[in-house]
Amino acid sequence: MKRVIETKNAPAAVGPYSQAIEANGTLYISGQLPIDPTTGQLVEADIKKQTEMVFHNIEGILTEAGYSFNDVVKMTVLLKNMDDFASMNEVYARYYPNEKPARAAYQVAKLPLDVMVEIETIAVK
Fold it and tell me: What are the backbone dihedrals phi and psi of residue 35, each rounded to the nearest 5 degrees, phi first?
């Protein structure tokens, strides 16, 4: 069974996709951008602040779906510049002090709205 997850605690999709889909006990969260869901505005161009906002948005979706960061099994991090990897990791590590999910991180040519970071997430119950 498939369930569409939608919350005001994360920014609305900027295209024809869902914030997240739950299917058979697995939650697939679309790539989250550093958009403040209360204002609809991008966070300033600072990798730590943008990463923090992305995690805030992921948390809003996880909570709406009845999951937590403890349920996350895989994340994919897309970076505008791999030179931001260490700074992004500082924020990322705070969310996973113990059991860390599997992860891939890539530098990409361009991200939507020219942001510095986008993160997609998979969680399992």
Answer: -105, 130
Output b/e per residue, 10-19; b: 16+ Cβ within 10 A.
bbeeeeeebb
How far apart are alpha carbons 38 and 117 in whole angstroms? 19
Query: Using CA atoms, how far apart are residues 125 and 122, in angstroms rounded to an integer?
Result: 10
Q: What beta strand segments (E) does the chain contain?
A: 2-5, 20-23, 26-32, 72-79, 102-107, 117-124
pTM for this entry? 0.97
Q: Does the structure show a pLDDT above 90 at 76? A: yes
CATH 3.30.1330.40 correct for 2-124: yes
| Domain chopping of the chain, boundaries | 2-124
Q: How far is CA 64 from the centre of its chain?
A: 14
